[in-house]
Design a protein that fits this description.
- The chain is mainly alpha-helical.
- It has one domain.
- The protein has 16 helices and 2 strands.
- Strands 1-2 form a two-stranded antiparallel sheet.
- Helix 4 runs antiparallel to helix 13, helix 8 runs antiparallel to helix 13 and helix 12 runs antiparallel to helix 13.
- The chain is globular.
- The two termini are about 35 Å apart.
């Protein structure tokens, strides 16, 4: 298999240089606030409408299949388009730049939170963030529900998903796999309920004059030899650090636990950050006791108010886990390493999924069975996100001792959540109304 040639000057047939692309991707990264819907809208406006680098049809096709993959779809979409335009180097540049501002911002906020989280002005800051986060999660339920729950079967899938995770603690991955299988089989059997819905409310969208044509570029064509090479390289980058930590420190060490847990997360984060956070909370709060529910909400508040994917909250969880169990290391150093480790094992697989699967995904454009699986997964995700919103609402007012003195939360705190004052619920509803008013209008969101 011939090696990829160096990228110089005006690369490929589209005439966009690697340097020009770097500037544009840096701009996208700095504007990537507001969760996946806002981030995808920013990319669409810049890449499709403004720069005309890619056609509407290829943009939406890439988005559809990035949503089928585990991991943050906005970051993977950036990687996908960067790879389409400038091959592997372009994908690494686009995907890496997309998360870099968030890595820096979350790390800085984690330092402040670990050092001064019990100081009045920090508490006041995150008090407001909690209400905003609750509003955002509620809005996610409404937004996705309007598009996904279009018939009785989809409503039933959402209800079953909610009942399963809320009342019976069914693992999130099991719900997603089951929904995907139901959708796949339903679409294969020709059931109209599982047909995919077009983005943008079903409106027919005209192609723009793109520089990257709709013909399959040479470097995009699938190859088994290339797939094996990509798998070997990215699996080594992902799993060698995990194996090294297990061998050197043992399975009980916090760094080994971070590496294993967040590697699992990288394989099951279907449906975006909102959906997977219910499972993360289930494990990080109740099983590992790395953070308590209030801190989990604070972490999501950080991720919501900084650029980058919302799944960057996992960096905060990794930071706090290692900060509290630093061993012989200084706590801040341990927290830094824990946060960076969580980020590495979370995002390295995202590049693997794109570089390995994207050529074959390009060859599967228009596959109805996969589209049906996506529709069913999206419906189930509505139920999972509803569970997450209730979980946040219950824990948003938890009273606790100073966080340095203990882990987790007590039975009394659980009971105390039943008598919460409605102040923050009112704030959340107002925040949701303001956010909805600001975000009116069609966006190419999931």
């Amino acid at each position: 298999m011939p090696a990829e040639r160096p990228i110089t000057g005006k690369d490929e047939s589209h005439g966009v240089s690697f340097r020009d692309a770097f500037v544009v991707w840096a701009r996208v990264a700095m504007l990537s606030f507001g969760g996946p819907a806002g981030q995808i809208a920013v990319m669409h406006r810049i890449l499709v409408d403004e720069k005309r680098w890619i056609s509407e049809s290829r943009f939406l096709h890439a988005l559809n299949y990035c949503m089928l993959l585990p991991g943050p779809e906005a970051q993977q979409l950036a990687t996908y388009i960067g790879w389409l335009m400038h091959r592997t180097a372009g994908g690494i540049m686009a995907g890496g730049l997309f998360i870099l501002p968030g890595v820096i911002a979350i790390m800085g906020l984690s330092y402040i939170y670990a050092a001064f989280g019990n100081v009045g002005f920090i508490e006041a800051l995150f008090f407001g963030l909690k209400a905003a986060v609750l509003a955002i999660v509620i809005q996610a339920v409404v937004r996705i529900g309007k598009r996904a729950l279009r018939n009785k079967i989809m409503i039933g899938l959402a209800v079953v998903a909610f009942v399963g995770i809320f009342f019976f603690n069914v693992p999130f991955p099991a719900i997603i796999i089951a929904a995907g299988l139901i959708g796949f089989i339903g679409a294969k059997s020709g059931r109209p309920e599982f047909e995919a819905v077009a983005h943008g409310g079903g409106k027919q969208t005209a192609l723009v004059d793109n520089l990257l044509t709709d013909e399959l570029p040479e470097h995009v064509r699938p190859s088994v030899a290339r797939a094996l090479k990509v798998s070997a390289i990215w699996l080594l980058l992902w799993l060698v650090p995990v194996a090294a930590l297990l061998l050197a420190l043992g399975q009980a060490n916090v760094f080994s636990q971070i590496a294993i847990f967040f590697s699992k997360m990288a394989m099951v984060t279907f449906g975006g950050a909102y959906a997977v956070l219910a499972y993360v909370a289930q494990q990080a709060v109740d099983h590992y006791h790395w953070v308590n529910p209030r801190e989990m909400l604070d972490g999501l508040g950080m991720a919501e108010t900084t650029p980058g994917p919302l799944i960057m909250v996992l960096q905060f969880v990794g930071f706090m886990a290692a900060f509290r169990d630093a061993g012989a290391l200084p706590p801040m150093l341990a927290g830094t390493l824990g946060g960076l480790l969580a980020t590495w094992v979370t995002f390295t697989p995202c590049f693997l999924w794109i570089f390995l699967g994207a050529p074959f995904i390009e060859a599967l454009r228009g596959n109805k069975a996969l589209a049906g699986a996506l529709s069913a997964i999206t419906a189930a995700v509505v139920g999972v996100i509803l569970n997450l919103s209730i979980w946040f609402a219950i824990h948003t007012e938890i009273k606790q001792k100073p966080r340095h003195l203990r882990r987790g939360y007590s039975r009394e705190e659980r009971a105390d959540t039943l008598s919460r004052k409605p102040v923050r619920l009112e704030c959340a509803l107002r925040a949701r109304a303001a956010r909805a008013a600001r975000n009116r209008g069609p966006t190419p969101s999931r």
